[in-house]
Protein backbone atom coordinates (compact mmCIF):
# COMPACT_ATOMS: atom_id res chain seq x y z
CA UNK A 1 0.00 0.00 0.00
CA UNK A 2 1.32 3.49 -0.79
CA UNK A 3 2.30 5.63 2.12
CA UNK A 4 2.01 9.29 1.17
CA UNK A 5 3.50 10.40 4.48
CA UNK A 6 6.69 8.38 4.16
CA UNK A 7 9.62 10.73 4.56
CA UNK A 8 13.02 9.99 3.07
CA UNK A 9 11.78 8.09 0.02
CA UNK A 10 11.92 9.85 -3.37
CA UNK A 11 8.88 7.76 -4.36
CA UNK A 12 6.75 9.25 -1.54
CA UNK A 13 5.95 5.62 -0.68
CA UNK A 14 7.77 2.32 -0.21
CA UNK A 15 7.52 0.07 -3.32
CA UNK A 16 5.78 -3.19 -2.49
CA UNK A 17 8.15 -6.15 -2.55
CA UNK A 18 5.59 -8.69 -3.78
CA UNK A 19 4.46 -6.49 -6.66
CA UNK A 20 8.04 -5.92 -7.81
CA UNK A 21 8.82 -9.65 -7.69
CA UNK A 22 5.66 -10.44 -9.64
CA UNK A 23 6.56 -8.08 -12.47
CA UNK A 24 10.19 -9.27 -12.53
CA UNK A 25 8.98 -12.85 -12.99
CA UNK A 26 6.36 -11.89 -15.60
CA UNK A 27 8.71 -9.76 -17.68
CA UNK A 28 11.57 -12.21 -17.30
CA UNK A 29 9.47 -15.15 -18.49
CA UNK A 30 8.01 -13.24 -21.44
CA UNK A 31 11.46 -11.98 -22.46
CA UNK A 32 12.78 -15.54 -22.57
CA UNK A 33 9.79 -16.59 -24.67
CA UNK A 34 10.30 -13.63 -27.03
CA UNK A 35 13.98 -14.54 -27.41
CA UNK A 36 13.13 -18.18 -28.14
CA UNK A 37 10.48 -17.14 -30.67
CA UNK A 38 12.87 -14.70 -32.37
CA UNK A 39 15.50 -17.41 -32.73
CA UNK A 40 13.00 -20.08 -33.78
CA UNK A 41 11.48 -17.94 -36.54
CA UNK A 42 14.78 -16.18 -37.34
CA UNK A 43 13.13 -12.82 -36.74
CA UNK A 44 16.21 -11.04 -35.45
CA UNK A 45 14.57 -7.60 -35.37
CA UNK A 46 12.56 -8.76 -32.35
CA UNK A 47 15.74 -8.85 -30.24
CA UNK A 48 16.44 -5.07 -30.27
CA UNK A 49 12.70 -4.39 -29.97
CA UNK A 50 10.60 -6.80 -27.91
CA UNK A 51 13.50 -8.43 -26.07
CA UNK A 52 15.08 -5.07 -25.26
CA UNK A 53 11.75 -3.93 -23.81
CA UNK A 54 11.71 -6.94 -21.51
CA UNK A 55 15.29 -6.39 -20.37
CA UNK A 56 14.58 -2.75 -19.52
CA UNK A 57 11.41 -3.66 -17.63
CA UNK A 58 13.22 -6.35 -15.62
CA UNK A 59 15.90 -3.78 -14.76
CA UNK A 60 13.28 -1.23 -13.73
CA UNK A 61 11.30 -3.58 -11.52
CA UNK A 62 14.49 -5.04 -10.04
CA UNK A 63 15.39 -1.51 -9.01
CA UNK A 64 11.96 -1.10 -7.42
CA UNK A 65 12.50 -4.38 -5.56
CA UNK A 66 15.79 -2.98 -4.30
CA UNK A 67 13.97 0.16 -3.21
CA UNK A 68 11.46 -1.92 -1.26
CA UNK A 69 14.34 -2.83 1.07
CA UNK A 70 16.16 0.52 0.91
CA UNK A 71 13.55 3.14 -0.02
CA UNK A 72 15.78 6.13 0.71
CA UNK A 73 18.63 5.08 -1.61
CA UNK A 74 18.97 7.19 -4.73
CA UNK A 75 20.64 4.61 -7.03
CA UNK A 76 17.69 2.20 -7.44
CA UNK A 77 15.29 5.13 -7.74
CA UNK A 78 17.34 6.63 -10.57
CA UNK A 79 17.60 3.24 -12.26
CA UNK A 80 13.86 2.53 -12.16
CA UNK A 81 12.93 5.99 -13.47
CA UNK A 82 15.06 5.58 -16.57
CA UNK A 83 14.33 1.89 -17.22
CA UNK A 84 10.55 2.04 -16.81
CA UNK A 85 10.14 5.24 -18.83
CA UNK A 86 12.18 3.78 -21.72
CA UNK A 87 11.01 0.14 -21.53
CA UNK A 88 7.87 0.20 -23.72
CA UNK A 89 9.49 2.26 -26.51
CA UNK A 90 11.28 -0.67 -28.24
CA UNK A 91 8.08 -2.74 -28.03
CA UNK A 92 6.24 0.03 -29.82
CA UNK A 93 8.84 -0.15 -32.59
CA UNK A 94 8.05 -3.87 -32.97
CA UNK A 95 4.39 -2.97 -33.46
CA UNK A 96 5.33 -0.54 -36.22
CA UNK A 97 7.36 -3.20 -38.04
CA UNK A 98 4.58 -5.78 -37.74
CA UNK A 99 2.02 -3.33 -39.11
CA UNK A 100 4.28 -2.66 -42.09
CA UNK A 101 4.41 -6.40 -42.80
CA UNK A 102 0.61 -6.64 -42.54
CA UNK A 103 0.23 -3.80 -45.05
CA UNK A 104 2.54 -5.55 -47.50
CA UNK A 105 0.64 -8.82 -47.10
CA UNK A 106 -2.90 -7.40 -47.45
CA UNK A 107 -2.18 -4.71 -50.03
CA UNK A 108 -0.23 -1.43 -49.76
CA UNK A 109 -2.67 0.30 -52.12
CA UNK A 110 -4.90 1.05 -49.12
CA UNK A 111 -2.11 2.78 -47.21
CA UNK A 112 -1.07 6.42 -47.44
CA UNK A 113 2.54 5.41 -46.83
CA UNK A 114 4.40 2.44 -48.23
CA UNK A 115 5.25 -0.32 -45.74
CA UNK A 116 8.89 0.80 -45.93
CA UNK A 117 8.04 4.39 -45.07
CA UNK A 118 5.71 3.36 -42.25
CA UNK A 119 8.65 1.61 -40.63
CA UNK A 120 11.07 4.47 -41.31
CA UNK A 121 8.79 7.31 -40.17
CA UNK A 122 7.31 5.75 -37.05
CA UNK A 123 10.49 4.01 -35.89
CA UNK A 124 12.37 7.31 -36.32
CA UNK A 125 9.75 9.03 -34.16
CA UNK A 126 10.14 6.20 -31.66
CA UNK A 127 13.91 6.70 -31.50
CA UNK A 128 13.47 10.46 -30.99
CA UNK A 129 11.03 9.76 -28.17
CA UNK A 130 13.46 7.25 -26.67
CA UNK A 131 16.34 9.74 -26.68
CA UNK A 132 14.30 12.61 -25.24
CA UNK A 133 12.80 10.44 -22.50
CA UNK A 134 16.22 8.98 -21.72
CA UNK A 135 17.85 12.39 -21.37
CA UNK A 136 14.99 13.73 -19.27
CA UNK A 137 14.75 10.60 -17.16
CA UNK A 138 18.45 10.61 -16.41
CA UNK A 139 18.44 14.29 -15.53
CA UNK A 140 15.37 13.98 -13.30
CA UNK A 141 16.64 10.83 -11.61
CA UNK A 142 20.00 12.36 -10.71
CA UNK A 143 18.33 15.51 -9.41
CA UNK A 144 15.79 13.61 -7.31
CA UNK A 145 18.46 11.29 -5.96
CA UNK A 146 20.54 14.26 -4.81
CA UNK A 147 17.61 16.09 -3.19
CA UNK A 148 17.56 18.65 -6.01
CA UNK A 149 14.62 19.82 -8.07
CA UNK A 150 13.78 17.13 -10.68
CA UNK A 151 11.30 19.40 -12.45
CA UNK A 152 13.56 20.43 -15.39
CA UNK A 153 14.32 16.80 -16.19
CA UNK A 154 10.67 15.96 -15.67
CA UNK A 155 9.69 18.55 -18.27
CA UNK A 156 12.06 16.93 -20.77
CA UNK A 157 10.57 13.51 -19.95
CA UNK A 158 7.10 14.96 -20.39
CA UNK A 159 8.06 16.30 -23.81
CA UNK A 160 9.33 12.86 -24.81
CA UNK A 161 6.27 11.00 -23.57
CA UNK A 162 3.93 13.57 -25.20
CA UNK A 163 5.76 13.05 -28.49
CA UNK A 164 5.38 9.30 -28.04
CA UNK A 165 1.68 9.71 -27.30
CA UNK A 166 1.31 11.78 -30.47
CA UNK A 167 3.19 9.14 -32.45
CA UNK A 168 0.96 6.33 -31.15
CA UNK A 169 -2.17 8.38 -31.90
CA UNK A 170 -1.12 9.18 -35.48
CA UNK A 171 -0.09 5.54 -36.01
CA UNK A 172 -3.46 4.33 -34.68
CA UNK A 173 -5.36 6.74 -36.95
CA UNK A 174 -3.33 5.64 -39.98
CA UNK A 175 -3.97 1.99 -39.12
CA UNK A 176 -7.68 2.68 -38.64
CA UNK A 177 -7.91 4.36 -42.04
CA UNK A 178 -6.01 1.48 -43.64
CA UNK A 179 -8.33 -1.20 -42.28
CA UNK A 180 -11.44 0.83 -43.18
CA UNK A 181 -10.19 1.23 -46.76
CA UNK A 182 -9.26 -2.45 -46.87
CA UNK A 183 -12.69 -3.57 -45.67
CA UNK A 184 -14.45 -1.32 -48.20
CA UNK A 185 -11.95 -1.98 -51.01
CA UNK A 186 -11.16 1.73 -51.33
CA UNK A 187 -7.53 2.03 -52.48
CA UNK A 188 -5.69 5.35 -52.35
CA UNK A 189 -6.16 7.24 -55.62
CA UNK A 190 -3.31 6.68 -58.03
CA UNK A 191 -1.87 3.68 -56.19
CA UNK A 192 -1.03 0.56 -58.14
CA UNK A 193 -3.30 -2.30 -57.09
CA UNK A 194 -1.58 -5.56 -56.18
CA UNK A 195 -3.57 -8.42 -57.62
CA UNK A 196 -1.54 -10.97 -55.65
CA UNK A 197 -2.24 -9.52 -52.22
CA UNK A 198 -3.24 -12.04 -49.56
CA UNK A 199 -6.86 -12.34 -48.48
CA UNK A 200 -7.85 -11.91 -44.86
CA UNK A 201 -7.47 -15.17 -42.93
CA UNK A 202 -8.28 -16.19 -39.34
CA UNK A 203 -4.56 -16.11 -38.54
CA UNK A 204 -4.23 -12.61 -39.96
CA UNK A 205 -7.29 -11.48 -37.99
CA UNK A 206 -5.74 -12.84 -34.80
CA UNK A 207 -2.46 -11.05 -35.58
CA UNK A 208 -4.32 -7.78 -36.13
CA UNK A 209 -6.32 -8.27 -32.92
CA UNK A 210 -3.11 -8.85 -30.96
CA UNK A 211 -1.53 -5.77 -32.51
CA UNK A 212 -4.57 -3.62 -31.72
CA UNK A 213 -4.66 -4.85 -28.12
CA UNK A 214 -0.93 -4.26 -27.65
CA UNK A 215 -1.17 -0.76 -29.09
CA UNK A 216 -4.19 0.06 -26.91
CA UNK A 217 -2.32 -1.00 -23.77
CA UNK A 218 0.69 1.12 -24.74
CA UNK A 219 -1.61 4.05 -25.50
CA UNK A 220 -3.23 3.80 -22.05
CA UNK A 221 0.22 3.69 -20.46
CA UNK A 222 1.36 6.76 -22.44
CA UNK A 223 -1.75 8.71 -21.40
CA UNK A 224 -1.11 7.79 -17.76
CA UNK A 225 2.54 8.80 -17.93
CA UNK A 226 1.61 12.11 -19.54
CA UNK A 227 -0.91 12.91 -16.80
CA UNK A 228 1.51 11.68 -14.11
CA UNK A 229 4.36 13.94 -15.22
CA UNK A 230 2.01 16.88 -15.83
CA UNK A 231 0.84 16.55 -12.22
CA UNK A 232 4.39 17.14 -10.97
CA UNK A 233 6.96 15.20 -8.97
CA UNK A 234 5.13 15.80 -5.73
CA UNK A 235 1.66 15.30 -7.17
CA UNK A 236 -0.92 12.79 -6.03
CA UNK A 237 -0.62 10.62 -9.14
CA UNK A 238 3.13 10.01 -9.02
CA UNK A 239 2.86 9.49 -5.25
CA UNK A 240 0.22 6.75 -5.54
CA UNK A 241 1.79 3.36 -6.10
CA UNK A 242 -1.32 1.55 -7.35
CA UNK A 243 -1.60 3.92 -10.32
CA UNK A 244 1.91 3.03 -11.43
CA UNK A 245 1.43 -0.70 -10.87
CA UNK A 246 -1.80 -0.87 -12.86
CA UNK A 247 -1.44 1.81 -15.53
CA UNK A 248 2.25 1.28 -16.26
CA UNK A 249 3.38 -2.15 -15.10
CA UNK A 250 0.20 -4.06 -15.92
CA UNK A 251 -0.41 -2.30 -19.25
CA UNK A 252 3.11 -3.00 -20.51
CA UNK A 253 2.85 -6.61 -19.28
CA UNK A 254 -0.39 -7.14 -21.21
CA UNK A 255 1.07 -5.56 -24.35
CA UNK A 256 4.20 -7.69 -23.99
CA UNK A 257 2.37 -10.99 -23.58
CA UNK A 258 -0.11 -10.22 -26.35
CA UNK A 259 2.74 -10.49 -28.87
CA UNK A 260 3.87 -13.77 -27.32
CA UNK A 261 0.39 -15.17 -27.91
CA UNK A 262 -0.38 -13.42 -31.21
CA UNK A 263 3.13 -13.82 -32.56
CA UNK A 264 3.97 -12.79 -36.15
CA UNK A 265 6.13 -15.87 -36.64
CA UNK A 266 3.23 -18.16 -35.76
CA UNK A 267 0.43 -16.24 -37.45
CA UNK A 268 2.13 -14.74 -40.51
CA UNK A 269 4.59 -17.52 -41.23
CA UNK A 270 7.63 -17.15 -43.45
CA UNK A 271 6.54 -13.80 -44.84
CA UNK A 272 6.81 -12.24 -41.40
CA UNK A 273 10.57 -12.66 -41.65
CA UNK A 274 10.65 -10.36 -44.67
CA UNK A 275 11.40 -6.70 -44.57
CA UNK A 276 8.16 -4.68 -44.71
CA UNK A 277 9.24 -3.12 -48.03
CA UNK A 278 9.74 -6.42 -49.85
CA UNK A 279 7.30 -7.22 -52.60
CA UNK A 280 4.86 -10.09 -52.30
CA UNK A 281 6.26 -11.50 -55.54
CA UNK A 282 9.66 -11.68 -53.90
CA UNK A 283 8.09 -13.63 -51.07
CA UNK A 284 6.61 -16.16 -53.49
CA UNK A 285 9.94 -16.58 -55.27
CA UNK A 286 11.65 -17.10 -51.93
CA UNK A 287 9.11 -19.69 -50.87
CA UNK A 288 9.23 -21.54 -54.20
CA UNK A 289 13.02 -21.63 -54.27
CA UNK A 290 13.17 -23.07 -50.76
CA UNK A 291 10.50 -25.69 -51.46
TrEMBL record:
Positions of transmembrane segments: 18-36, 43-61, 81-103, 115-136, 156-180, 201-222, 242-262
Cellular component per GO, a single term: fungal-type vacuole
Location (main, coarse): membrane
Highest taxon listed in the record's lineage: Eukaryota
Residue ranges of coiled coil: none
Signal peptide: none
Location in the cell: Membrane
PANTHER family for this protein: PROTEIN RTA1-RELATED, SPHINGOID LONG-CHAIN BASE TRANSPORTER RSB1
UniProt protein name: RTA1-domain-containing protein
The species this protein was found in: Panaeolus cyanescens
Lineage: Eukaryota, Fungi, Dikarya, Basidiomycota, Agaricomycotina
